[in-house]
Amino acid sequence: MNTHPIVRLGIISALQEEQQGLVEAMQGAATHIHGRRDYTTGTLWGIEAVCVLSRIGKVAAAMTATLLVEKFGVSHILFTGVAGSAGNGVTVGDIVVADTLVQHDMDASPLFPPCEIPLTGLSHFAADALLTTCLAQAAAAFVQGDLGDAIGDGDKQLFGLSAVRVHRGLVASGDQFIHNAARINRLGDDHPGLLAVEMEGAAVAQVCFELNVPFAVMRTISDNANEKAATDFLHFVRAVAANYAFYIIKRFCQQTSQASMLSAGTKS
Ligand code: SAH
Fold it and tell me: Which of 1, 46, 115, 161 is the most exposed place for a label (fewest CB within 10 A)?
């Protein structure tokens, strides 16, 4: 992290279950209510952090990301949450770290090409390369190191978590919970290489692009975005995704605070 050391890290999740453990792990935690959300400030494994639930959807996520930057002064943003698989070898229990994000439901055609954000000339937003690499490394270290103990055997069996993989690539966001095989196949056709669908990441990406704040997005795959997507969703979030997020963020913070300490002496 020595090209842009983290000064204050904003951590956004969509659902309460996904973030509870992190908030409980915060040192010196203080909660500030603003715009109907709780922003908890404190320190996570040596990193100054602000944790907040965005709630679900692009507007909710955009507002949360904006306030994190403008009111709570975060220098970097991480989003952790769950997503539906869009195929391409991604299965339930895998981790997707976004390299690029697109808003699949933005369509101002024929005035602008489908998915282009009007008046930006952009349809795809790149996550910060360094932050994304650090997050993917933390995810890989979690899979190799903590996963065995972090999830109960019953849940591992229930959700088929035997060969968990970390993927990097394209994530699409829209204000729709995708639960239809034909729909997810069409999205995959429209967006070659698509790994996952969710409802917030690309909105955070647009805000961070416009405010020039480095960001990264990590998603645990909870479903296949087909007719069975809603089954056991909350059980998965509580038993699997919340643990993934906790241990991956823990490793990310530990890695990052160490790197900042190492680079502190070499900064110009
Ligand atoms: N059933 C849940 C609703 C979750 S909405 C409840 O009652 O609270 C889905 C959340 O998970 C969103 O934050 C979204 O980003 C993500 N997500 C998971 N699977 C998804 C899918 N198949 N399509 C879109 N978003 C999905």
Answer: 46
